Automatic annotation (TrEMBL):
Organism (species): Hyphomicrobium album
Transmembrane region(s): none
Gene3D superfamilies attached to this UniProt entry: Glutamate synthase, alpha subunit, C-terminal domain (2.160.20.60)
Pfam families documented for this protein: GXGXG (PF01493)
Name used for this protein in its record: Formylmethanofuran dehydrogenase subunit C
InterPro entries: Formylmethanofuran_DH_suC (IPR017550), Glu_synth_asu_C (IPR002489), Glu_synth_asu_C_sf (IPR036485)
UniProt-listed SUPFAM superfamilies: Alpha subunit of glutamate synthase, C-terminal domain (SSF69336)
Highest taxon listed in the record's lineage: Bacteria
Domain Glutamate synthase alpha subunit C-terminal: 78-185
Example GO molecular function: transition metal ion binding
GO biological process: methanogenesis
PANTHER family per UniProt: TUNGSTEN FORMYLMETHANOFURAN DEHYDROGENASE, SUBUNIT C (FWDC) (PTHR39673), TUNGSTEN-CONTAINING FORMYLMETHANOFURAN DEHYDROGENASE 2 SUBUNIT C (PTHR39673:SF5)
């Protein structure tokens, strides 16, 4: 596995924009120029060589050692290859990803996978608010791809999401799937308050909801083929790390009836 490795030489004193550290961008940039890339967020003009030691040769893999919550836009615009972070990352990791694989061994800040249309993001820890959501100026949030979070996810996960799948082994915060128009959010430990606010289409799956919006209607128990398809997809994609297959029968709540109401919350317990 060839590629460049970046190691922080000291804790960053300002937020760093690491959107340029992708396999494709680095493969076409001489190492001397890589070290001069401006990664700072202030007028001081902080260069990459000021905060990182670099080793290895350009390849399909980029590894960032010594993570920090001040490392922003990690994996932004990633379209092929693998980017691994051995620790925490800041805001907007995986922003506008189109392909490839982003692995985060720690926690992720707000807006993880904002605008992602393809590829896979794996987070070993937890993620803050607006996973797969949209940033200022975006029409939609996540429009494709897969996000897997081993810990918990914050509020407004999947805000205005259109396609793709978010799987959370822990709990999902409040207002999950707000303004969602498609796609799937699946949590193993349940949703916080008011999931599906202004949900137009799409599916939220979990064992429980802290507080159900009054604009969702109990549609009874159903045996849905789509759940078996989703379980097979996760098994094929995640292998031994895949979740247990979903039950064949679930209770369905249809909504949000305050809007077109073609979405659904499926309770598995």
């Amino acid at each position: 596995m060839s590629g460049l490795t970046f190691r922080l030489t000291s804790a960053p004193k300002e937020r760093l924009d690491l959107s340029q550290l992708t396999p494709r961008k680095l493969s076409s940039t001489p190492l001397a120029q890589v070290l001069k890339l401006n990664v700072g967020s202030t007028k001081s003009g902080l260069s990459l060589g000021d905060v990182f030691a670099v080793s290895g040769k350009p390849g399909d893999t980029v590894r960032i050692e010594s993570g920090s919550a001040r490392l922003d836009f990690v994996g932004a615009e990633l379209d092929h290859g693998t980017l691994i972070v051995e620790g925490d990352v800041g805001v907007s990791a995986g922003r506008n990803m189109r392909g490839g694989r982003l692995e985060i061994k720690g926690d992720a800040g707000n807006l993880l996978g904002s605008g992602i249309s393809g590829g896979e993001i794996f987070v070993k820890g937890s993620a803050a608010s607006q996973v797969g959501g949209l940033s200022a100026g975006d029409k939609f949030g996540m429009t494709g791809g897969l996000i897997v979070i081993d810990g918990h996810a914050g509020d407004r996960t999947g805000d205005r999401m259109r396609r793709g799948t978010i799987y959370i082994r822990g709990k999902c915060g409040s207002f999950a799937g707000s303004r969602m128009v498609g796609g799937t959010i699946w949590t193993e430990l349940g949703f916080g308050a008011d999931p599906g606010l202004l949900l137009r289409r799409g599916t939220l799956i979990g064992p429980s909801v802290e507080q159900m919006l009054p604009t969702f209607a109990d549609a009874g128990r159903h045996d849905l083929v789509i759940l078996r398809i989703l379980s097979r997809y996760m098994s094929a994609t995640l292998g031994s790390q895949a979740p247990k297959p979903l039950p064949t029968a679930v209770r369905k709540y249809a909504g949000d009836l305050a809007t077109v109401g073609k979405g659904e919350i499926l309770l598995t317990a």
